[in-house]
C-alpha cells in the first residue's frame, strides 16, 4: 500500500503492533462468558443496560415513524404522485427532536381528514408537517442516530466489548422490527396520535441521558475505564471529572493529538526516505 517491500522496517513494526493488539484483545476476551455482561464487576451490568437502552432509544425517538408516514404526508402537497398505488449535546438534541415531534403530531391531529383520519386534507398543514419532519430528521441524523454507536463503544468494558456491542445491536434491531411490525395496526387505530407515543419516549430518554449517561468527551478509552471505577463520579457531574495528573480534559486531548501528529510525521518521513532510496 505504501510502495515498500514486505521486509521494510515500517511494515514490520506496523504488523507487530497490530498483531500484539489482536493477541491482547483475544486474551482479554478469553474466559469471559455472556453472563459476565450482567455482573457487577467493573459496572458491567450498568454498562450493558445503558448500551441496550441507548440503542432502544435510537429507535424509539421516532425517526422511522416519519419514514412510515412519509408518503401519506407528502401526498396532499403533491410531492408524491397520486396516479399510482405506490453528555449535553444529546440532551439538547433530544429537546429539539421533542419539539418537532409535538409540532408534527399536533398538526397531524388537527389537520387530519374527518372522513379518512389517516390522511391530512389541508395542504398548509401538510407543509408544516413536512418542515417539522425535516427538522426532526436533521437533529436525529446528525447526532442521536450515529452518536449512539460511538457512545455504546465507549461505555463497554474492554474485556466484554464485543459481547456488549452485540447485545446493544440486538436491542436496536429488535425495536426496529417491533416498530415495523406494529406501526401499521397502531396507526390504523390512533392515527397521528401515535406521534405522542414517541414524544413520551424522547422526553424519557432526555432524563435517562442526564441521570445515567457518563460524559466521555475528550477522554481516551483507558481514562473512561478509570472514570467508571471512580465511586465519587455520578453521570450528572461526570463532565467535571478530570483524569489523575491532569489539569483538564483538554490536556489529555492535546497530548493524544500531539502523539498522533508525531506518528504521522514519522510515517511521512519513512515514506520520503524509502522514495529517496528508490530514486
Automatic annotation (TrEMBL):
Keywords of this entry: Membrane, Sugar transport, Transmembrane, Transmembrane helix, Transport
Superkingdom of origin: Eukaryota
Membrane topology: Multi-pass membrane protein
GO-annotated cellular components: plasma membrane
Record localization: Membrane
Transmembrane in keyword set: yes
Transmembrane region(s): 49-68, 88-112, 124-145, 193-214
Keyword Manganese: no
Main localization category: membrane
Gene3D superfamilies: MFS general substrate transporter like domains
Record GO terms (molecular function): carbohydrate:proton symporter activity
Pfam families in the record: Sugar_tr
Protein name as catalogued: Major facilitator superfamily (MFS) profile domain-containing protein
Species, as recorded: Malassezia arunalokei
